[in-house]
């Protein structure tokens, strides 16, 4: 706080001092044995001014460190790290004790919240791993009964199992967003080696909907986390398949330009209305198609894709035209963040 603002806050003290000076002058004027003169009035004014100035300077110097602490805390936005210890007056000590108690309660609440989040994280991880076992058993059972089922029933069962596995993966990756920095490994990855297995996993969808795909461009090597990028591509390809009509097609393009390496996934599906395109990466946003076409959309797939791309240092873009199709592009910039110094920044930022 500046001295000028301090004086504004001490306006009551200044007015009180002025009133005392006027009363002193009045008493001298009313006292018969005392000769009233303007020299006496000026002397009293100087005397009161000196006493008042000394009082204000001493008070300001005592308060300055107190206010500086609050200003520094506000600038650093570090409100609940350190306890207050600079109070001197009884008023400031009372405020200090109140704030320290609030900080202590905040720390307790924060610790309990973090512990609960950790317990929830551990429960979700355990639940995901536990549920994958019966899912694998169901898949094996379905394959064993394939000859006894019609193609339609078999594809329906495969579709349901695939959806369950997708939802389970979404839960797992959503729960791990906050702990991303503890679970990533940046290394060189060939994009086609990530894309082809995902296409094979969705082979029954391509057969059932009579879809075909085309991969254009030479294989590209990028720096990324293979597991997280694979999940991102699964969400994008799954959406492309879901919202592409029978007989449609997907085009997967790999190329480079001055900005970096690009991966483009283009479909000729139903497209996205223009007014919804800015929201497709929002958490929980399913859009008009997700609500009206019985696609059982969760609104988490593209949200997770966007969040993970940002954490990996990639960029994701969407272009779409209603009833014409949608193109999702991922840019892998010519990176330098994987150097040791910048990798530490990446870890600390997440």
TrEMBL record:
Catalytic activity, EC: 2.7.13.3
Subcellular location: Cell membrane
Catalytic activity line of the entry: ATP + protein L-histidine = ADP + protein N-phospho-L-histidine
Membrane topology listed for this record: Multi-pass membrane protein
Entry-linked InterPro entries: BphY/WalK/GraS-like, HATPase_C_sf, HATPase_dom, His_kinase_dom, HisK_dim/P_dom, HisK_dim/P_sf, Sig_transdc_His_kin-like_C
GO molecular function: phosphoprotein phosphatase activity; phosphorelay sensor kinase activity
Biological processes annotated in GO: cellular response to phosphate starvation
Domain Histidine kinase positions: 126-336
UniProt xrefs under PANTHER family: HISTIDINE KINASE, PHOSPHATE REGULON SENSOR PROTEIN PHOR
Protein name: histidine kinase
Source species taxonomy: Bacteria, Bacillati, Bacillota, Bacilli, Lactobacillales
